[in-house]
Each structure stands twice: as C-alpha cells, then as structure tokens.
Amino acid sequence: MSEKATATLDELELKKIELDSLIDIIKSINGNIPEQDLYRTFMFTLRSYPHISKMTLYVLDEDTEVDANRNKWFNKEGFGTLGNYKNVLLPQEILDIHKVSSTTEFNHLAPFNEFCFLIPIHHKDQVLAYLFLGRAYDSLLEEDLDLPFIQALSDIIIVAIENKKLARKQKVQEVFSRQLEMASEVQSLLLPKHLPNQEKFSVVASYYPHHNVGGDYYDYIQINDNEFLLCVADVSGKGFPAAILMSNFQAALRTMARQTTDLKKIVEELNHLIIQNSGGGHFITAFFFLYNKSQKTAVYINAGHNAPILMFNSHQVQHLEEGTTILGTFDKLPFLSVANLNNLDDFLIFCYTDGFTETAAEDGEEFGEDNLLVGVKENFDHSHQELHERLFDKLHLFKGNTPYPDDITLLSCRVKK
C-alpha cells in the first residue's frame, strides 16, 4: 500500500475516532450524568486518540471557598502525566494565556513543561478551563493532533458542565426565593395588626425592612384593662431561619405574658428558648416595657438593645439602659436586673433599632443617637404619627443618595393625663 493510501486511511481512522468521540460526548450530556462523570468521559475520549500521550485539565470553580494561598482553578482529570497535578496551582503566567499555545513559551514552569500544547477553553469572553496535552512522539506536528477539533470538543463538554452549574445555582436561588417569600409571610403575621390610637393613649410603629425579610420585630400586648407590654427586638441574621426564630420568640413572649407579669422570668425563659432553638447561631437584642396604668408605674429590661428614650416633655429625657446583655448567648444572663419607673402619667417612650441610627450620609457619617434625640425633641409636640413621619423625613434628607444599610423600626407609646 502506498504512503499516500496509508495516510488517507490514518486520516479516516482519526475522523472515525473524532466522530465516535463527539457522539459519546453528546450522549453523555443528553444523559444528564453528574459533572465528575462528564470529566471522566472527556478524559477517556482523549485517551482514545493515538497521537495524545498525556493530558491534564484545570477548571475554574468560583463557587468553592479557597484560602488566601490558592486560586480557584482546580485539576479535574488527567492521564499519562509524570506527576500528580491535584494539588498543583496554575501559575499566573499560564492564567494570562487566552489562545492555543505551544508550551515551549513556558518551558521554565515545571511541572507544566512536560506538555506540548495548552488549549484555553472559552465561554463568551471568559476562560473556563485550561487543557494541557502531550503528543505521543516528538515528530508529530500540531496539525496531526487536530487541535481545532479537540478545542471544539472541549468547548462542548466544559460549557455543558457550566450550564449544569448555572442550572444548579438557579435551582438554589428558586428555593431561596421561596424561603424568603415564606419568611416574609411569617413575619407579616408576627407584627400586631391593630395598635391603640386614642387621645390619651396611643402606640405608633413604623417598620421598613431592608430586604423582603428583615430581622426587626415589635409588639404591643394588652395583658388586661390595666396593663400592657411593649417589646422591640432585632434578631441577628436574615431570611427564613431568622424569621422562624422570631416567630418562636413572639409566640413564647405572648404565652408568657398571659401567664405572668414577672418580667425577669419572661426574659430568662426567652433567653433559654433562643439558645435551644438556634444552637448559638443567632442572638436577639430586645427591650421590654411593662406599664401599669392605675399605679402609674412601669418596669423594663433592656437586653442589649439600643436604649429607648423616655420623655416627659421636650426637655426632660431619660435613656432606658438597665437590664442585661443580648439574648441567646449565655445560659445564665449576667447582671440581669429589672428597672422600676414611678409617677408615669404623662410621657412618651420612644424605641428604635440600630438601622435608623447607623444610616450614613454620603460622606460616611452615621446619623447617630444624638441626631435622633434632637429630632424627637424638635417634634415632641407634634401628633404621634407625625413625629414618626418627620423623623423619617429628617433621616432621608441626611442620607442623600446613600442606601439604607439595615431594617429600621420605630416604636413609640404616648400616655397623657
């Protein structure tokens, strides 16, 4: 048989291998097999090429957490190599290459100098993988390997794997979105639907979640004709777990308030509940205020929350700071104490969460507690609802184009003679 006929047969054999490889790859993709099996299929496909003696494949994996000592390029498959590349990092010189190249350009970069060719695999404008190839014998030319076909085959498999990753992310996002929707529904059920609005007694709440689901909570509980309980709280974390924890908190608070007016006992039980339900993964800052109308007295506990403002007029101010630390961290709450207030028959108590005071202006300066106090004093004589509205106007003007950093809750109670 002539050399020309032999060459033709070799070319036909190579084309048959390529066609079989393409069919196998497409079958594997359509079969929806796991990503690792796709990598192995790709590796065995290249192993069937008579002109390829070795390969190793690096793939970009941006979803995997890595420490500061490595990049996000991971070795997925290989064969015929002198060394194990699983823990070998891609150097920056290789990451700067975006076209098919002969590895003679980086012969100094051991151990990658055992290969002959480098094929970057693109999707749109981004390199997703680097394929290193070694030829079976030195006299083989680049065209003998049919690098364009190998590159096309690599593109198909890597893009298919990338699509799997995107589909998985989309599914996770759909689950997360549904969780947010459920958490939002849960949270909407927690907040009181009706607050007292009488001439001599009113409670006003303003709540603005930073996202669809916030971590703030407030409540007004009418215990009997003579007593009521106010609570404002802020749970660490967001989303569905935080909403569930807050729903448990609310249910326990309302149950306890029907059983006892011992505020210390209520707070101790709530602390125990949070530790049990969150396993130390969340904590809650909270403020509790129990008022007795006939005795004109109140007791309160501040559990690590921003100190509410108690005002008798626009000049007499008291910050309610006594109590204990945050709930959900210590089995036994340190320095837990109940503060007593007497002669309360004409007052305003103003509670808030830190989303209000930590909102920043465009220069980075936070609104702060001093600005809030000034705002409350300036608007003390306005109607109860207008007080809240004017404070938000003041905050909005202060922040300019800076977005709100967190949920914001204002809760206030006004009692008049």
Question: Which short descriptors sum up this protein?
Answer:
about 425 residues; alpha+beta; 6-stranded mixed β-sheet; 10 helices; disordered N terminus
Write structural notes for this entry.
The chain has 10 helices and 16 strands. The chain is α+β, with helices and mostly antiparallel strands. It has 2 domains: 168 residues, GAF domain (Beta-Lactamase), CATH 3.30.450; 225 residues, 4-Layer Sandwich (Phosphatase 2c, domain 1), CATH 3.60.40. Strands 7, 8, 9, 10, 13 and 14 form a 6-stranded mixed sheet that branches. A 5-stranded antiparallel sheet has the order 2-1-5-4-3. Strands 6-16-15-11-12 form a 5-stranded antiparallel sheet. The radius of gyration is 34 Å and the shape is elongated. The chain starts with a helix and ends with a strand. InterPro entries: Bact_Sigma-Reg, GAF-like_dom_sf, PPM-type-like_dom_sf, PPM-type_phosphatase-like_dom.
What is the general shape?
Answer: elongated
CATH homologous superfamily annotation of the largest domain: PPM-type phosphatase domain
Query: What is the number of helices?
Result: 10
- Provide the helix percentage: 25-40%
Compute the separation of the termini in Å. 116 Å
- Classified by CATH, the class of the largest domain is Alpha Beta
Number of separate domains: 2
Structural class given helices, strands, pairing?
A: alpha+beta
Kindly state the number of beta strands.
Answer: 16
Q: Classify the beta-strand content into a percent band.
A: 15-25%
Q: If you average the pLDDT, what whole number results? A: 83
| Biggest sheet character | 6 strands, mixed
Task: Provide the succession of SSEs.
Answer: HHEEHEEEHHEEEHHEEEEEEEHHHE
Low-pLDDT runs: 1-10
**Which architecture of the largest domain would the CATH scheme give at its second level?**
4-Layer Sandwich
CATH topology of the largest domain: Phosphatase 2c, domain 1
- The radius of gyration is 34 Å
InterPro entries: Bact_Sigma-Reg (IPR052016), GAF-like_dom_sf (IPR029016), PPM-type-like_dom_sf (IPR036457), PPM-type_phosphatase-like_dom (IPR001932)
Pfam families: SpoIIE (PF07228)
GO molecular function: phosphatase activity
Protein name: Serine phosphatase RsbU, regulator of sigma subunit
